[in-house]
Amino acid sequence: MCLLRTMWGFPYDKNGVARGLTVTPVCIDDYRSLAKRRLPRMVFDYLDGGAESERSLHRNLGAFAAINFAPRRLVDVSHRNSSVSLFGRTLPTPFVVAPTGLNGALWPDGDVALARAARSAGIPFVLSTASNATIEDVAERAGGDLWFQLYVVQRDLARLLVGRAKEAGYRVLVLTVDVAVNGKRDRDLRNGFAIPFRQTPRSVLDAVTHPRWALGQIRHGLPQLANFASPDATDVNAQAALMRRQMDASFCWQDLQALRDAWPGRLIVKGIMTATDVNRCRELGVDAVVLSNHGGRQIEDVQAPIDLLAEISNQNAMPLLVDGGIRRGADAVKALALGAKAVLLGRAILYGLAAAGEEGAGHVLQILTAEFDTTLALVGCPDPARLNRQFIQL
Predict the structure, then answer these.
(1) Using an 8 Å Cβ cutoff, are 110 and 128 in contact?
(2) How many domains does the chain have?
(3) What is the domain-level CATH number for residue 354?
(4) Which residues contribute to the annotated binding site for FMN?
(5) Which residues bind FMN per the record (predicted)?
């Protein structure tokens, strides 16, 4: 925990938008503290919380902490390379901005801000079905290497969204499969968190005691599920179902095969947590999977994805990505050493977004990139392509 955290503040303009940092945060935990200060409690708890007693959330963090390095010495690390190869392309770093919903509740135009930060860093950005900016708006205003994440709420609507993503130039489709029903999130239930925000005496007090956040929301308008508000996709029932994570629980392997046949680009399945399901995805022609427990937000007692990666990476030929609990560049080094091709950033970059918008998100990526490079040097590996299990101790 950084010592100067309590001394920090931001100068804001009349719209609640940061004009810059008075003291520069040096780690992700610093940005978490700043996000907690700026956001109302109900919004911060939505960002920060997990399922039930949050054991899976904390297990994700603890799993990375339990992995130690086995540094190699007397290696020439004077020239280092942080790039990785994924789907035939070279990424400057192994980071991908994960799909996250309701980013407009954290910062006005949050989805566009995140996409712009990703574009500046040269890494992919995954737009969530539950975004507060439309598929087309993000493509037009941000650009970059865009991927689209699909929740199947209704079959016809899913086909429409996939078609829009293809038309707008999204390169990769990411199907999330771990939300057949909504996980029980105690913090959200206690706070009555919902979109649109419910105006209760408690929520109003929460907002007015966080004027920097409230001014931004008033100026730019309260967030809505933009992909469900277009003329060809307006469906109040679908919006409500998405907010409650009431997806099409009948979606199964045959439907995945149909999606694979229909989508011409790269297809990733996110939310896989067993070697058996990884193998089945490969057999159906899926291009990669994300080992993920939804950041510990869906089911409480489930393995940390990084631990699963350690078990199965040598058994599978398809690309494996991983998320959940990544707070340091060193965590990405551990993941790649265990066989991951890249890592997805969720809360880590959202803390930066919530604290300082695009500037904060971009700075989080700079912090993680610098930590990644430093760790490569300190473990004696100048190129991520050379990382393997010899560099870690489980």
Answers:
(1) no
(2) 1
(3) 3.20.20.70
(4) 99-101, 128, 149, 176, 270, 292, 323-327, 346-347
(5) 99-101, 128, 149, 176, 270, 292, 323-327, 346-347
